[in-house]
Write a structure and sequence with these properties.
CATH superfamily of the domain at 100-349: Alanine racemase
Shape: globular
Number of strands: 21
Distance between the termini: 29 Å
Helix content: 40-55%
CATH architecture of the domain at 100-349: Alpha-Beta Barrel
């Protein structure tokens, strides 16, 4: 960065405030009260202890991690936030139930698939006991997790997914132990298995039926809603289930209706419509003679990743209390005229439960900027004529002719590149042409900031000239939804927020993949393609946080380039605003990830030893050098898969 720019940065930094950073990164919108910026310019997490708020700086937590030898990147979990989300969800439903004089109860269940990590499920099961908060299992492995972790037998286990005999046996044993474990029928073919295993074990099952709602919801998953949903019974299939249960004299086992509208539903009107239709199915089953008693509305409670409070894909146009009130009131209004007893309401809120409690923190390793190098005062007379023409464009750029200069610069640059391909100009001429063109584009980009109507052709010019900040993480391991479904997460520096950011950037990871980048960011004005960041200070780490990543990211992460699981730290914030490291998990070593892809690290070490020993025999190295190489190889096998700063 030129000295003049540094001077300007210093002058403007005096005018910059924490409030400016809060607005720039919209932290008070998406943070939902869990995150804000301290007077020191550091992001802090805010939790409730004994009815009072306590704040802890993320930078203080990172410093504590470094003291314990935990390097970047790291998944940081705040247990208090997870507890608070469970509390807020249950209390919001209780308020809605009291206000509507609803006669039924609320029972939440957490879908294990959303975050299967042991310490997450342990915390949900432990803290959730006070609310009888249960678990949802979609596989045998997840059912085993639920059976081992739930200690409150007033909590529910909801079994979704395809179920074989072994799956059913486990659920029936849970019932025999006194746990209300529901088998939700996804297809008619599951019912004969449940009936056969029930007869064989002499244990009566709790059965639910998942219906296919006709309501098409907004958001990313809308194409899988309505009639195109791949799960759920059709109306005809539901009636077939009723007839089979009647024939088996087990219709009294059918006590639950499951209606899952979709995931991350941003529009409250979709939810109300879906609940209304579910009530019609529930009423129909009552009329068929099923006792019922439970209405499971699945997931769908959204997370406002943008903080925009709209019905866009990554936002939501409602608050938690409104969500609960709409559900409770719709059920009551539908069933009261028919004098049907209010059912226990179940929701399977996963994303909204865990998203806020986790963030990814990484350090920036390097920056590539697209600023032009200083140009000479004049070109040598012997320079190619096209270079002279390009150079004159750079000297002529102004606010009235910038479009013409843009066209001319690209024309002459392409001419030079063609001459280079034919061998008529050299490498230095090619480099000079690229640098002059960059100078022209840089001048035009600055002009565009001060005009009202930007030509469409030039609209993305600032993005083309933005910096690339290289972060020490793997997008595919830690943030796979960014690559897979264009998910947007809040991203921002976690410190230096009392300084004005002077750079516009995208973020690249350290995989050798062009898709390993973050180039869509939230802002108060909507989604933007660059992120304001600070220039790096020599010898100082620069930390960036990606927030609201607690749902799905760890479960879906892969081993692209053999980058493994990151370090994980779980923190509990105390009533005096101190914090404890309650859990620490070392990320995968290189030996770990090699074993995942069927290599044997011990065998690899032996093979390398043989190679080194042969080199000693061939007098390419000596025995001492061989030992140094073997130590380095062995140490690397046990090392972190991510970039490690050299320790001095």
């Amino acid at each position: 960065m030129p000295i003049s720019d540094l001077t300007n940065q210093s002058e403007t930094s005096k005018k910059w405030s924490v409030a400016d950073s809060e607005n720039l990164y919209a932290v008070n919108q998406w943070g939902a009260g869990y995150f804000n910026i301290s007077e020191r310019g550091e992001v802090q997490v805010v939790v409730q202890n004994d009815q009072q708020n306590n704040s802890v700086s993320l930078l203080d937590i990172i410093n504590g991690m470094k003291e314990r030898g935990l390097e970047m990147p790291t998944i940081l979990r705040i247990e208090n936030v997870l507890d608070q989300r469970i509390k807020e969800l249950n209390e919001a439903f209780l308020r809605a139930i009291d206000a509507a004089q609803y006669k039924g109860k609320y029972r939440g269940v957490f879908p294990i698939k959303v975050n299967q990590q042991c310490h997450v499920i342990e915390e949900i099961a432990d803290f959730g006991q006070r609310f009888n908060h249960g678990l949802e299992a979609g596989s045998k492995a997840e059912l085993i997790i639920a059976l081992s972790q739930l200690r409150d037998h007033n909590s529910l286990i909801i079994c979704n997914g395809y179920k074989d005999a072994e799956f059913v046996d486990l659920g029936l044993y849970a019932t025999q132990l006194g746990i209300r474990c529901f088998f939700v029928l996804e297809t008619p073919t599951e019912l004969p298995i449940i009936l056969e295993r029930s007869a064989a074990l002499g244990i009566k099952p709790f059965i639910g039926a998942r219906i296919k709602s006709s309501v098409i919801v907004d958001g990313h998953w809308n194409e899988n809603s309505g009639d195109r949903s791949i799960f759920g019974l059709s109306t005809s299939a539901l009636l077939d289930v009723v007839e089979q249960l009647k024939d088996a004299k087990m219709l009294d086992c059918l006590q639950l209706l499951h209606c899952h509208l979709g995931s991350q539903i941003p529009n409250i009107r979709n939810i109300r419509s879906g609940v209304l239709e579910a009530c019609r199915f529930y009423t129909g089953l009552i009329n068929e003679g099923a006792p019922m008693g439970y209405l499971d509305l699945g997931g769908g409670l959204a997370v406002d990743y943008e903080g925009a409070r709209t019905n866009s894909t990554h936002s939501m146009n409602y608050q938690l209390d409104e969500y609960c009130v709409n559900i409770v009131e719709t059920i009551a209004e539908s069933l009261d005229p028919l004098q049907i007893t209010h059912p226990t309401i179940i929701t399977e809120s996963g994303r909204a439960t865990v998203a806020y409690s986790s963030l990814l923190v990484f350090n920036v390793l390097d920056v590539r900027n697209h600023e032009p190098q200083p140009l000479p005062q004049a070109l040598e007379e012997s320079a190619h004529e096209t270079l002279h023409n390009l150079f004159s464009v750079d000297t002529d750029v102004n606010s009235t002719n910038f479009q013409e200069c843009y066209n001319d610069a690209l024309y002459y640059r392409d001419e030079i590149r063609e001459l280079f391909r034919r061998g008529q100009v050299g490498l230095r001429d090619r480099a000079l042409a690229d640098n002059i063109t960059l100078s022209v584009l840089d001048k035009i980009a600055k002009i565009l900031k001060n005009i009202d109507r930007v030509p469409p052709e030039l609209a993305n010019l600032p993005e083309l000239l933005c910096d690339i900040y290289y972060g020490n993480f793997s997008l595919f391991q830690s943030l796979p939804d960014i690559w897979a479904i264009d998910q947007v997460f809040p991203v921002m520096p976690i410190h230096r927020l009392d300084e004005q950011p002077t750079r516009e950037a995208i973020i690249a990871d350290i995989t050798c993949d062009c898709d390993g980048k973050i180039d869509r960011f939230i802002s108060p004005q909507g989604i933007r393609n660059t992120l304001p960041l600070h220039a790096l200070n020599q010898g100082e780490e620069y930390y960036i946080g990606v927030f609201l990543v607690g749902a799905y990211q760890e479960t879906l992460g892969d081993l692209h380039n053999l980058f493994g699981d990151t370090n994980v730290v779980s923190v509990k914030i105390n009533a005096d605003a101190s914090f404890d490291f309650v859990r620490e998990f070392q990320g995968d070593s290189i030996a770990d990830v090699l074993s995942y892809v069927e290599y044997d690290p011990k065998q690899m070490l032996e093979q390398f030893r043989r190679t080194a020993e042969q080199a000693v025999r061939d007098k390419k190295i000596n025995a001492s050098q061989r030992q140094t190489m073997l130590r380095a190889f062995k140490d690397s096998l046990q090392g972190y898969t991510y970039f490690e700063r050299e320790q001095h």
